[in-house]
Amino acid sequence: MDEILTQDRLYQGLARKLMAELSSGRFKAGDRLPAERELAAEYNVSRPTVREAVIALEVQGLVEVRVGSGAYVKRVPGKGDVPGFNITAFELTEARLLFEGEAAALAATQITDEELALLRSLIDEIAKENLRDGGAEKADRAFHLAIARATRNQAIVDTVEHLWTLRSTSPESALLHEKARVAHVKPVVDEHTAVLDALAAHDPAAARAAMRAHLSAVLESLLFATEERAMSAVRQAADAKRARYQAI
């Protein structure tokens, strides 16, 4: 594949290539980009790489992703447009998987009964938040930060807190998490309970495995949230709901 796709991360190289295609006139404003699977085959990259690249272009206002329809060119890059990349939701979750897994293992060696009780109450709050619209996920954040504090290491607390802050401050990450909320992807109570059970057993290996399993599932849910079939299902559900209201 072109050298352009071997620089930086693959999605960044693909985003640069797509920007060049837009500038060259291959695609014009209003055109629909080829389907995800077609772009993956054309550029010899994975479909998640295509999704990350399209999200990068969407953040820069070059394309518009329409639910259940695909990505459309919003405008052609001008001379002043240069690729700008922030931390993606996939990168962020990979970092969390590596870092928070070890944090959970350390927390398991010294977590107190009071801290375990707090985690139980936060799981109950996660379940309640899942029933509400909007997806604030405040209890989810509090759950992970409570585990970080149980490590008795302020550097770990600061790092975990920073990783959570990046979810909303990095445009690419914020956009994909918003797409996940639209697709009704929410924190899974059973996964958090498995982490709690391992911590309560004071088993570092089990706590590490449970946290890594949880965050691996988060990665999978982010992939699902950007699947065309998932977006199509959301659109169909919304259409059906509107039809029911109109019939009343």
Characteristic key phrases:
248 residues, mainly alpha, 11 helices, 68% helix, 3% strand, elongated
What does it look like?
The protein is mostly helical and 248 residues long. 68% of the residues lie in helices and 3% in strands. A two-stranded antiparallel sheet has the order 1-2. The chain is elongated.
Helix content: 55-70%
Unreliable spans:
1-7, 228-235
Distance between the termini: 56 Å
Q: What is the beta-strand fraction?
A: under 5%
Reading side by side through the largest sheet, how are the strands ordered? 1-2
Report Rg: 20 Å
Number of strands: 2
Mean pLDDT across all amino acids: 84
Shape: elongated
Largest sheet: 2 strands, antiparallel
SSE blueprint and pairings:
Layout: H1 10-24, H2 36-43, H3 47-59, E1 63-66, E2 70-73, H4 89-108, H5 113-130, H6 138-149, H7 154-169, H8 171-182, H9 189-200, H10 204-225, H11 228-247
Antiparallel strand pairs: 1-2
Helix pairs in contact: 1-3, 2-3, 3-8, 4-6, 4-7, 4-9, 4-10, 5-6, 5-9, 6-7, 7-8, 8-10, 9-10
Brief digest:
The protein is mainly alpha-helical. The protein has eleven helices and two strands, in the order αααββαααααααα.
